[in-house]
Structure formats: C-alpha cells, structure tokens
Design a protein that fits this description.
Length: 362
Amino acid sequence: MSNAPLRTPLYDRHVALGARMVPFAGYDMPVQYDSVIAESKAVRESVGMFDVSHMARLWLRGPRTLEFLEWVTANDVSKLGDGKGQYSLLPNERGGTVDDIIAYRISEDAFRMVVNAANHEKDLRWLREHNDHGVELEDETERTAMIAVQGPKALQTLAGLSNRPELFEGSALFDVLEAEIAGVRCFAPRSGYTGEDGCELVCRAEDAGRLWDALLEAGVKPCGLGARDVLRVEAGLPLYGHELTDDLSPIAAGLGWVISKTKSFIGAEPIRIAREQGTPTKLQGIQMAGKRLPLPGTKVYVDGREVGEVSSGVFSPMLDCGIAFAFVDPSIALGTPCTVELRGRHEPATIVSKRFLKKAKG
C-alpha cells in the first residue's frame, strides 16, 4: 500500500505557480509561493486565498440530526437558524477535545460540518461510534474542493465575481451563502481562519481549477500554510495539536465562550468543573522584544522561575517581532515581563493578550 501524500484538486496549479510543497496532514500542500511575509500582508491589507481542500467536509442528515449534534458538540446548536453556522468543539468524555469544528445548519434535518485534515478519520470514527440517533453521515471531501478567500477586500472581490453580489454585501459572520462565483456554483459560508473577513468556498472538485484561475485573474494573491499559521496566531486562533488536545481542557485554551453552560453533552461535567475551579495553566500571548520566534516546547520564565511552555510561535510581519501562544501559570498578569529560552539564552519578552491584533474578527 502506497504512503504517498494525497493531492488536492488544485495541486497542479500550486506547482505551476512555483509553490514550495510540503507534506501536511497526509497531503502535499503549498507552504509558500512568494514569501510568508508578503502573503500575510496581502491578507491583512487586501485579499489572499488558500487551498484548504485538505480539510474534511461532511454532511449530516436525518430527523434527529439536531439532537445528535447537541450531544456530540459543545456549542448550542439549537440556537442556529437555517443558513447559519458556528464554531464549536467535539469534546471527549474526559473534558478534552477530539477536534474543533464548524457546523452549518442547512435545514432542521441537514447540517454540514468542516473538521481538521489531520483528524479526518479520527472524527469520522468518533461521530460514528456515538451515532445512536440514526444520522446519515456523508463524507464529501474527495469530490469537493475548498478555497478560503480572506482579507478586507475579500467580500468586494467575491461580489464582483458573483451572480448574486447582494449576498456578500449584506451578510454577517458565519452566514451560509450559496452563489455562483465566476460561473462556479459554490457553498460559500462567511468564515475563515485568519482574523480577517472572507468566505470559504466549497465547490465540485472538477470546478476548482476554474474558480482558482478566476480568483487569480481578479488579483487575489495565492497564500500558503506559512502565512495561514502567522495569521491565525496574530488573530489569537487555536490549532488542534498545539492549543487543543485530547487531554487538555478547552477552558485552559480560553474557549469557554463556545461551550454551553446549560445543555447536556459529552464531557460536560469535567468541563464544568474546569470552568468553576480553574485549570493548572492558561493560554496567553508572548510578544518577543526582538524578531526571534519561539518554537513549540520552548520554556517561559518569570523572574528566573519556569512558568509555562510555548504551544505555537511565528514571526509577525504586522508587529515586526516574534509572537507565540504559551500555556502559563494562570496567576501571572498580562503585561508581566518574561524571558523565553532559545538555544540556551533567555530572550526578553512580555506576557500579553493572545489576540495580538485587536482588529481581528476571530
């Protein structure tokens, strides 16, 4: 059996544009085309696009779908109306996180879900194991593609290419939009992972190249995984495997706002206890005094005492310094000077809010 990486429907486009390809979550993915800094700035200042076809896309259907999702997800799915989505979690019985997801309500008995590429099979297995509600689970990942168009000019650009421009002009965050874009029929929820405005376009795999080419012609800059990581850290957004794990409470990661306080769901009791009693560590931001970036696992110190560990680190083009997420002692206040140990040297930094860019919309 071959262990060769999978390829998205846009693989040939990436190669033709000279992208540097790397293995990621079982796929050959573009890490950068131009430079990570240029791509990050394009999304912050104008509009960029990412091939996110590696992320898994699921349909859930049946008369008890809402009841099932209320049980297996942490957020209040019952609050969603048709054509609305929400960020949520799949918690486990211990109060850890199986994955973070987005769920979209299409109708009372039909939902779509997007889950992380690295957890594709794990999430499917988890959902099937807990499906006592007769819900039909359909995996549409292979026959579709997904392109995230992000930035302050994203909606304007999409409206200009669409047969229904008014949808983009009057939509709100997590609205579910459906329109033709450059003649390609798209499921286009207003969501993303950069802290900027935009939509994630899902279309048939065979139409992905035509859609990508039209976006490219409209001036949308192709961006890779490198810029995506920078943008999500700047915006304070967690990544599964770094800020979320099976053994870590999402309360420690600051995600209590997406967890219901009233409904019953898998893992509700240990999460309630974590919320009430606190957690041993809390996710905070680390802003370096210089341009060096701390890697995951790097230790954080206050007054010479080890107080935490970095979970993600990048160089921020917008702040012109290294920034990171770190799980630290929850008693330490924002604004506290600290040091980060890099190659045996203690580099100066400050503990700050994990939302580094205040304009970010999440």
